[in-house]
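Database export, one record per block. Field names are fixed; values are copied verbatim from the stored entry.
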Amino acid sequence: MMHLEDWHVHNEPKIPHDPRHNGLRYLYNYPLPQALQMLTDPQWTRAIFVRDPKERFLSAYLDKAAKKNGRYLDRHCCLGEEDKDDSCGKRASQSLLGFIKVVQTECCCDPHWKPQSQRIDEELWNYVNFVGYFHDLAGDTQKMLQRVGQKAWEEFGASGWGQFQNESIFVESSTAKHRTSARTKMMQYFNDSRTEDLVEAFYAGDYQRFQFDRYRLAISDT
């Protein structure tokens, strides 16, 4: 939308995440009066896309803890620990229960698993006027772009995506298969009620603010 030629390049860590290299403009790049208008004027769309807390937490565990014996956590959460054989990264990598315990006690604010309801100050949530959900990413993205303007949807979302550039944005041809696979993996890892209770408690704010369904995955072990 900003007409950057490298919009489709995924070159970690610089593009697309690093503000110093990706060429995108952020709210803090604008003069304060203009930024305040963007934050408060009802004509602006202030959107956030959120993911089911358990799915997001499991994704963080698989990518940041289970992978490479928790080296990510050793670098970002276990600073000062001398026992490398029993570091918080090693403990977190062993199981989803071990991961939630480490997150609760040593590294709760990492952006990969920090509650989405804590991303901005409480008083600013009243200005967020569009919430999209990952479980319907294609549909909610269409709604958001159409809210911005039908031209935005037609120019940037309606076509030009997919392997053959003939699909709408975020459309998945194998949605049903993908959902089945994801649910199976969730049930594989959320296999005890204690772990599930701890994760639900950690994300209580997300469940309340975004009204996620609290479906249970683990068979009760009581």
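Remark 1: The radius of gyration is 20 Å.
Remark 2: The first strand starts at residue 47 and ends at 50.
End of record.
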